[in-house]
Amino acid sequence: MEKVVLAYSGGLDTSCVIPWLKDRGYQTIAFCANLGQGDNLALIKKKALSSGASKVYCLDVQNEFIMDYVFPALKAGALYEGKYVLACALSRPLIAKHQVNIARKEKAGGLVHGCTGKGNDQVRFETTFRLLAPGMEIIAPLRIWEFKTREEEIDFAKSRRIPVPVTKKSPYSIDTNIYGRAIECGVLEDPWKEPPEDVYALTSDPRQSPAQPGYVTITFDNGIPTKINGKTYGPVALVQALNKIGGRHGVGRMDMIENRLVGIKSREIYENPAGTMLHTALNDLESLVLDRETMRLKAVLSLKYAELVYNGLWETPLKQQLDAYFSKLHERSSGTVRLKLYKGHCTVVGRKSPKSRYKQKLATYGKGDQFDQKLAEGFVKLWGMPFISGQ
Ligand code: ARG
Q1: Residue of 13, 14, 35, 88 best suited for mutating to test ligand 1, as the one with most atoms within 8 Å of CB
Q2: Mutation choice for ligand 1 from 120, 169, 258, 264, CB with most ligand atoms inside 8 A
Q3: Is there a contact between 383 and 319 (Cβ–Cβ < 8 Å)?
Q4: How far apart are CA 130 and CA 338, in angstroms?
Q5: pLDDT tens, residue by residue, 44-88
Q6: Which of 201, 211, 348, 361 gets the most CB atoms within 10 Å of its CB?
Q7: Which domain holds residue 224?
Q8: Domain for residue 168, yes or no?
Protein backbone atom coordinates (compact mmCIF):
# COMPACT_ATOMS: atom_id res chain seq x y z
CA MET A 1 0.00 0.00 0.00
CA GLU A 2 1.25 3.46 -0.78
CA LYS A 3 1.76 5.69 2.24
CA VAL A 4 0.27 9.18 2.37
CA VAL A 5 0.40 11.95 4.99
CA LEU A 6 -2.89 13.60 5.88
CA ALA A 7 -3.39 16.96 7.58
CA TYR A 8 -5.73 15.69 10.28
CA SER A 9 -8.00 17.85 12.44
CA GLY A 10 -10.06 15.20 14.23
CA GLY A 11 -13.29 16.35 12.61
CA LEU A 12 -15.75 14.23 10.66
CA ASP A 13 -14.28 15.06 7.24
CA THR A 14 -10.67 14.19 7.85
CA SER A 15 -11.70 11.13 9.88
CA CYS A 16 -13.74 9.79 6.95
CA VAL A 17 -10.81 10.47 4.63
CA ILE A 18 -8.76 7.73 6.33
CA PRO A 19 -11.00 4.70 5.51
CA TRP A 20 -11.92 6.29 2.18
CA LEU A 21 -8.23 6.27 1.25
CA LYS A 22 -7.82 2.72 2.54
CA ASP A 23 -10.55 1.59 0.13
CA ARG A 24 -8.41 3.04 -2.66
CA GLY A 25 -5.22 1.35 -1.58
CA TYR A 26 -3.59 3.99 0.57
CA GLN A 27 -2.20 3.72 4.06
CA THR A 28 -2.61 6.98 6.01
CA ILE A 29 -0.22 8.67 8.39
CA ALA A 30 -2.12 11.41 10.21
CA PHE A 31 -0.47 14.70 11.08
CA CYS A 32 -2.08 16.86 13.71
CA ALA A 33 -0.58 20.30 14.29
CA ASN A 34 -1.08 21.93 17.64
CA LEU A 35 -1.61 25.55 16.69
CA GLY A 36 -3.30 26.42 19.94
CA GLN A 37 -6.77 25.52 18.67
CA GLY A 38 -7.62 24.22 22.14
CA ASP A 39 -8.60 20.69 21.13
CA ASN A 40 -7.76 17.66 23.23
CA LEU A 41 -4.87 16.29 21.23
CA ALA A 42 -4.69 12.97 23.07
CA LEU A 43 -8.29 12.32 22.05
CA ILE A 44 -7.62 13.38 18.48
CA LYS A 45 -4.66 11.04 18.28
CA LYS A 46 -6.84 8.18 19.49
CA LYS A 47 -9.52 9.06 16.98
CA ALA A 48 -7.05 9.05 14.09
CA LEU A 49 -5.89 5.57 15.05
CA SER A 50 -9.43 4.25 15.54
CA SER A 51 -10.32 5.69 12.13
CA GLY A 52 -7.58 3.52 10.66
CA ALA A 53 -4.45 5.67 10.53
CA SER A 54 -1.28 3.59 10.65
CA LYS A 55 0.57 6.25 12.62
CA VAL A 56 -0.10 9.69 14.09
CA TYR A 57 2.22 12.65 14.46
CA CYS A 58 1.18 15.39 16.88
CA LEU A 59 3.47 18.40 16.98
CA ASP A 60 3.26 21.57 18.99
CA VAL A 61 4.10 24.17 16.37
CA GLN A 62 2.81 27.24 18.16
CA ASN A 63 6.18 28.85 18.73
CA GLU A 64 7.24 28.27 15.14
CA PHE A 65 3.90 29.61 13.96
CA ILE A 66 4.25 32.87 15.84
CA MET A 67 7.97 33.37 15.18
CA ASP A 68 8.20 32.33 11.54
CA TYR A 69 4.74 33.11 10.19
CA VAL A 70 2.77 35.53 12.39
CA PHE A 71 5.60 37.95 13.20
CA PRO A 72 6.88 38.23 9.61
CA ALA A 73 3.31 39.00 8.49
CA LEU A 74 3.02 41.55 11.29
CA LYS A 75 6.30 43.18 10.23
CA ALA A 76 4.89 43.28 6.72
CA GLY A 77 1.74 45.01 7.99
CA ALA A 78 -0.15 42.31 6.11
CA LEU A 79 -3.90 42.80 6.39
CA TYR A 80 -5.89 41.16 3.60
CA GLU A 81 -8.09 43.71 1.89
CA GLY A 82 -6.94 46.10 4.56
CA LYS A 83 -8.57 44.16 7.40
CA TYR A 84 -7.94 40.45 7.98
CA VAL A 85 -4.81 39.52 9.98
CA LEU A 86 -4.57 36.20 8.08
CA ALA A 87 -4.57 33.93 11.14
CA CYS A 88 -5.91 30.94 9.21
CA ALA A 89 -4.07 31.69 5.98
CA LEU A 90 -0.70 31.79 7.76
CA SER A 91 -1.18 28.40 9.38
CA ARG A 92 -1.65 26.44 6.15
CA PRO A 93 1.87 26.67 4.72
CA LEU A 94 3.23 25.69 8.12
CA ILE A 95 1.06 22.57 8.29
CA ALA A 96 1.91 21.73 4.68
CA LYS A 97 5.64 22.09 5.33
CA HIS A 98 5.49 19.64 8.24
CA GLN A 99 3.48 17.19 6.14
CA VAL A 100 6.21 17.25 3.52
CA ASN A 101 8.88 16.66 6.19
CA ILE A 102 6.96 13.72 7.61
CA ALA A 103 6.35 12.29 4.15
CA ARG A 104 10.09 12.38 3.44
CA LYS A 105 10.91 10.75 6.78
CA GLU A 106 8.29 8.04 6.33
CA LYS A 107 9.04 7.54 2.64
CA ALA A 108 5.44 8.36 1.82
CA GLY A 109 4.53 9.27 -1.73
CA GLY A 110 1.42 11.37 -1.23
CA LEU A 111 0.03 14.38 0.61
CA VAL A 112 -3.62 14.73 1.56
CA HIS A 113 -5.79 17.57 2.88
CA GLY A 114 -9.44 17.82 3.84
CA CYS A 115 -10.34 21.06 2.08
CA THR A 116 -13.23 21.52 -0.30
CA GLY A 117 -13.00 22.95 -3.77
CA LYS A 118 -14.66 26.22 -2.80
CA GLY A 119 -12.13 27.65 -0.42
CA ASN A 120 -8.71 29.23 -0.19
CA ASP A 121 -7.16 26.51 1.93
CA GLN A 122 -6.88 23.94 -0.87
CA VAL A 123 -4.78 26.48 -2.78
CA ARG A 124 -2.56 27.20 0.22
CA PHE A 125 -1.94 23.51 0.93
CA GLU A 126 -1.38 22.37 -2.60
CA THR A 127 0.74 25.29 -3.73
CA THR A 128 2.99 24.78 -0.71
CA PHE A 129 3.15 21.03 -1.39
CA ARG A 130 4.12 21.62 -5.00
CA LEU A 131 6.75 24.22 -4.20
CA LEU A 132 8.38 22.14 -1.46
CA ALA A 133 7.91 18.67 -2.90
CA PRO A 134 7.38 18.83 -6.63
CA GLY A 135 6.28 15.50 -7.98
CA MET A 136 4.67 14.20 -4.82
CA GLU A 137 1.11 12.99 -5.34
CA ILE A 138 -1.60 15.29 -3.96
CA ILE A 139 -5.01 13.99 -3.00
CA ALA A 140 -8.01 16.16 -2.13
CA PRO A 141 -10.74 13.62 -1.25
CA LEU A 142 -13.42 16.19 -0.47
CA ARG A 143 -13.35 17.45 -4.04
CA ILE A 144 -13.91 14.02 -5.52
CA TRP A 145 -15.65 11.77 -3.08
CA GLU A 146 -19.19 10.50 -3.46
CA PHE A 147 -20.79 11.97 -0.33
CA LYS A 148 -23.19 14.73 -1.19
CA THR A 149 -24.47 15.52 2.31
CA ARG A 150 -23.24 15.39 5.87
CA GLU A 151 -25.76 12.61 6.53
CA GLU A 152 -24.16 10.43 3.87
CA GLU A 153 -20.79 11.08 5.43
CA ILE A 154 -22.11 10.17 8.88
CA ASP A 155 -23.52 6.90 7.50
CA PHE A 156 -20.13 6.11 6.00
CA ALA A 157 -18.40 6.97 9.29
CA LYS A 158 -20.76 4.71 11.24
CA SER A 159 -20.25 1.84 8.82
CA ARG A 160 -16.50 2.11 9.48
CA ARG A 161 -16.91 2.50 13.25
CA ILE A 162 -15.61 6.02 13.30
CA PRO A 163 -16.94 7.80 16.38
CA VAL A 164 -19.46 10.41 15.22
CA PRO A 165 -19.88 13.43 17.52
CA VAL A 166 -23.09 13.12 19.51
CA THR A 167 -23.24 16.81 20.31
CA LYS A 168 -25.28 18.91 17.92
CA LYS A 169 -23.05 20.32 15.22
CA SER A 170 -22.36 24.02 15.57
CA PRO A 171 -24.33 26.04 13.01
CA TYR A 172 -21.03 27.72 12.08
CA SER A 173 -17.84 26.71 10.37
CA ILE A 174 -15.02 27.78 12.63
CA ASP A 175 -11.26 27.90 12.20
CA THR A 176 -9.27 28.58 15.36
CA ASN A 177 -5.67 28.88 16.32
CA ILE A 178 -3.61 30.81 18.83
CA TYR A 179 -3.71 33.94 16.64
CA GLY A 180 -7.47 34.12 16.29
CA ARG A 181 -10.78 32.74 15.12
CA ALA A 182 -12.73 32.83 11.87
CA ILE A 183 -16.44 32.07 11.82
CA GLU A 184 -18.74 31.61 8.83
CA CYS A 185 -21.90 29.80 7.62
CA GLY A 186 -25.37 29.58 9.10
CA VAL A 187 -27.13 32.87 9.65
CA LEU A 188 -23.88 34.69 8.80
CA GLU A 189 -24.34 33.82 5.12
CA ASP A 190 -26.83 36.69 4.92
CA PRO A 191 -24.55 39.76 4.75
CA TRP A 192 -27.34 41.95 6.10
CA LYS A 193 -27.82 39.99 9.35
CA GLU A 194 -25.93 41.15 12.41
CA PRO A 195 -23.75 38.36 13.86
CA PRO A 196 -25.42 36.84 16.90
CA GLU A 197 -23.43 37.05 20.12
CA ASP A 198 -22.89 33.26 20.14
CA VAL A 199 -20.39 33.42 17.27
CA TYR A 200 -17.81 35.00 19.56
CA ALA A 201 -15.55 33.09 21.92
CA LEU A 202 -12.39 35.17 22.43
CA THR A 203 -13.93 38.59 22.87
CA SER A 204 -16.51 39.76 25.33
CA ASP A 205 -19.62 41.64 24.29
CA PRO A 206 -18.64 45.31 24.60
CA ARG A 207 -21.87 45.86 26.54
CA GLN A 208 -20.47 43.56 29.22
CA SER A 209 -16.84 44.66 28.97
CA PRO A 210 -15.28 46.80 31.73
CA ALA A 211 -16.80 50.23 32.19
CA GLN A 212 -13.33 51.72 32.60
CA PRO A 213 -10.78 51.74 29.77
CA GLY A 214 -7.78 49.45 30.04
CA TYR A 215 -4.28 50.68 29.20
CA VAL A 216 -1.51 48.50 27.91
CA THR A 217 1.93 49.15 26.50
CA ILE A 218 3.59 47.00 23.86
CA THR A 219 7.33 47.26 23.28
CA PHE A 220 8.89 46.31 19.96
CA ASP A 221 12.50 45.45 19.08
CA ASN A 222 13.13 45.84 15.36
CA GLY A 223 9.45 45.33 14.65
CA ILE A 224 9.11 42.26 16.89
CA PRO A 225 6.89 42.61 19.96
CA THR A 226 8.81 41.63 23.08
CA LYS A 227 7.19 43.24 26.11
CA ILE A 228 3.77 43.95 27.53
CA ASN A 229 3.63 46.63 30.20
CA GLY A 230 7.41 46.48 30.46
CA LYS A 231 7.52 42.74 31.12
CA THR A 232 9.29 40.44 28.67
CA TYR A 233 7.25 37.64 27.08
CA GLY A 234 8.11 34.82 24.72
CA PRO A 235 6.21 34.85 21.41
CA VAL A 236 3.47 32.38 22.37
CA ALA A 237 2.90 33.82 25.83
CA LEU A 238 2.82 37.34 24.39
CA VAL A 239 0.08 36.53 21.91
CA GLN A 240 -1.90 34.64 24.55
CA ALA A 241 -1.63 37.52 27.00
CA LEU A 242 -2.74 40.09 24.42
CA ASN A 243 -5.68 37.93 23.40
CA LYS A 244 -6.75 37.84 27.02
CA ILE A 245 -6.34 41.55 27.70
CA GLY A 246 -7.90 42.65 24.41
CA GLY A 247 -10.63 40.02 24.53
CA ARG A 248 -11.77 41.26 27.91
CA HIS A 249 -12.41 44.68 26.37
CA GLY A 250 -14.13 43.25 23.29
CA VAL A 251 -11.25 44.28 21.02
CA GLY A 252 -10.57 42.53 17.71
CA ARG A 253 -14.01 41.73 16.30
CA MET A 254 -14.43 42.13 12.58
CA ASP A 255 -17.26 41.57 10.17
CA MET A 256 -16.00 41.30 6.62
CA ILE A 257 -17.09 40.46 3.10
CA GLU A 258 -13.95 39.14 1.47
CA ASN A 259 -12.88 38.08 -1.99
CA ARG A 260 -11.78 34.48 -2.00
CA LEU A 261 -9.13 33.42 -4.46
CA VAL A 262 -11.56 31.07 -6.22
CA GLY A 263 -13.76 34.02 -7.13
CA ILE A 264 -16.48 33.69 -4.52
CA LYS A 265 -17.27 36.49 -2.10
CA SER A 266 -17.79 35.25 1.43
CA ARG A 267 -18.85 36.78 4.69
CA GLU A 268 -16.51 36.00 7.55
CA ILE A 269 -16.49 37.09 11.17
CA TYR A 270 -13.07 37.37 12.77
CA GLU A 271 -11.88 37.60 16.33
CA ASN A 272 -8.27 38.69 16.60
CA PRO A 273 -7.61 40.64 19.80
CA ALA A 274 -3.83 40.14 19.77
CA GLY A 275 -3.52 40.67 16.03
CA THR A 276 -5.55 43.87 16.14
CA MET A 277 -3.50 45.29 19.00
CA LEU A 278 -0.18 44.31 17.44
CA HIS A 279 -0.97 45.73 14.00
CA THR A 280 -2.39 48.91 15.49
CA ALA A 281 0.63 49.41 17.72
CA LEU A 282 3.36 48.59 15.21
CA ASN A 283 1.76 50.67 12.50
CA ASP A 284 1.72 53.62 14.85
CA LEU A 285 5.32 53.10 15.93
CA GLU A 286 6.26 53.15 12.24
CA SER A 287 4.69 56.57 11.85
CA LEU A 288 7.13 57.80 14.47
CA VAL A 289 10.33 56.17 13.22
CA LEU A 290 10.01 55.81 9.45
CA ASP A 291 10.54 58.57 6.93
CA ARG A 292 7.69 59.58 4.63
CA GLU A 293 8.92 57.85 1.46
CA THR A 294 9.51 54.55 3.26
CA MET A 295 6.01 54.70 4.71
CA ARG A 296 4.45 55.28 1.32
CA LEU A 297 6.16 52.33 -0.32
CA LYS A 298 5.57 50.11 2.66
CA ALA A 299 1.82 50.63 2.41
CA VAL A 300 1.90 49.33 -1.17
CA LEU A 301 4.07 46.33 -0.33
CA SER A 302 1.98 45.47 2.73
CA LEU A 303 -1.00 44.98 0.48
CA LYS A 304 1.06 42.82 -1.87
CA TYR A 305 2.39 40.71 1.01
CA ALA A 306 -1.12 40.16 2.36
CA GLU A 307 -2.25 38.96 -1.07
CA LEU A 308 0.66 36.54 -1.32
CA VAL A 309 -0.22 35.04 2.07
CA TYR A 310 -3.94 34.89 1.36
CA ASN A 311 -3.36 33.34 -2.05
CA GLY A 312 -1.11 30.55 -0.82
CA LEU A 313 2.18 31.92 -2.18
CA TRP A 314 4.11 31.75 1.10
CA GLU A 315 6.98 29.66 -0.26
CA THR A 316 7.64 31.87 -3.28
CA PRO A 317 10.82 33.89 -3.95
CA LEU A 318 8.85 37.15 -3.92
CA LYS A 319 7.57 36.50 -0.39
CA GLN A 320 11.13 35.82 0.77
CA GLN A 321 12.41 38.98 -0.91
CA LEU A 322 9.72 41.01 0.80
CA ASP A 323 10.66 39.49 4.17
CA ALA A 324 14.19 40.78 3.64
CA TYR A 325 12.81 44.22 2.75
CA PHE A 326 10.61 44.41 5.83
CA SER A 327 13.41 43.23 8.11
CA LYS A 328 15.65 46.00 6.78
CA LEU A 329 12.83 48.52 7.18
CA HIS A 330 12.26 47.56 10.81
CA GLU A 331 15.85 48.23 11.84
CA ARG A 332 14.41 51.44 13.27
CA SER A 333 11.22 49.98 14.74
CA SER A 334 12.14 49.78 18.38
CA GLY A 335 10.04 51.54 20.94
CA THR A 336 6.88 51.41 22.97
CA VAL A 337 3.27 52.11 22.09
CA ARG A 338 0.54 52.78 24.60
CA LEU A 339 -2.92 51.47 23.76
CA LYS A 340 -6.25 52.30 25.28
CA LEU A 341 -8.83 49.50 25.17
CA TYR A 342 -12.41 50.38 25.67
CA LYS A 343 -15.67 48.71 24.64
CA GLY A 344 -14.34 47.06 21.50
CA HIS A 345 -12.05 49.91 20.52
CA CYS A 346 -8.28 49.85 20.50
CA THR A 347 -6.71 53.28 20.13
CA VAL A 348 -3.16 54.49 20.35
CA VAL A 349 -2.72 57.15 23.01
CA GLY A 350 1.08 57.33 23.19
CA ARG A 351 4.27 56.24 21.50
CA LYS A 352 8.00 56.68 22.09
CA SER A 353 11.21 55.43 20.53
CA PRO A 354 14.95 56.05 20.77
CA LYS A 355 14.84 56.06 16.95
CA SER A 356 12.06 58.61 16.72
CA ARG A 357 12.08 61.00 13.77
CA TYR A 358 9.62 63.31 15.49
CA LYS A 359 11.32 66.63 16.21
CA GLN A 360 9.41 68.66 18.72
CA LYS A 361 11.57 71.73 18.18
CA LEU A 362 10.36 71.81 14.56
CA ALA A 363 6.76 70.78 15.21
CA THR A 364 6.02 73.03 18.14
CA TYR A 365 3.74 76.03 18.01
CA GLY A 366 4.92 76.92 21.46
CA LYS A 367 8.23 78.02 22.99
CA GLY A 368 11.55 76.88 21.52
CA ASP A 369 10.42 76.79 17.91
CA GLN A 370 13.49 76.32 15.68
CA PHE A 371 11.68 76.10 12.35
CA ASP A 372 12.93 78.74 9.94
CA GLN A 373 9.70 80.24 8.53
CA LYS A 374 11.57 82.17 5.84
CA LEU A 375 12.70 78.95 4.13
CA ALA A 376 9.11 78.06 3.41
CA GLU A 377 8.46 80.92 1.01
CA GLY A 378 10.92 79.72 -1.66
CA PHE A 379 9.97 76.10 -1.10
CA VAL A 380 6.29 76.73 -1.71
CA LYS A 381 6.98 78.80 -4.82
CA LEU A 382 9.13 76.13 -6.42
CA TRP A 383 6.70 73.39 -5.43
CA GLY A 384 3.90 74.81 -7.55
CA MET A 385 6.11 76.08 -10.36
CA PRO A 386 5.87 73.08 -12.72
CA PHE A 387 2.11 73.47 -12.94
CA ILE A 388 1.85 77.15 -13.72
CA SER A 389 1.20 77.82 -17.39
CA GLY A 390 2.33 80.80 -19.46
CA GLN A 391 5.73 82.17 -20.50
N1 ARG B 1 -11.54 33.28 5.19
C2 ARG B 1 -10.42 32.91 5.97
C3 ARG B 1 -9.26 32.54 5.09
O4 ARG B 1 -9.44 32.22 3.95
C5 ARG B 1 -10.74 31.82 6.95
C6 ARG B 1 -11.10 30.49 6.35
C7 ARG B 1 -11.69 29.48 7.31
N8 ARG B 1 -12.89 29.99 7.93
C9 ARG B 1 -13.77 29.27 8.63
N10 ARG B 1 -14.72 29.93 9.21
N11 ARG B 1 -13.68 28.00 8.73
O12 ARG B 1 -8.14 32.56 5.53
Answers
A1: 88
A2: 120
A3: no
A4: 43
A5: 999 999 999 999 999 999 999 999 999 999 999 999 999 999 999
A6: 348
A7: 174-352
A8: no
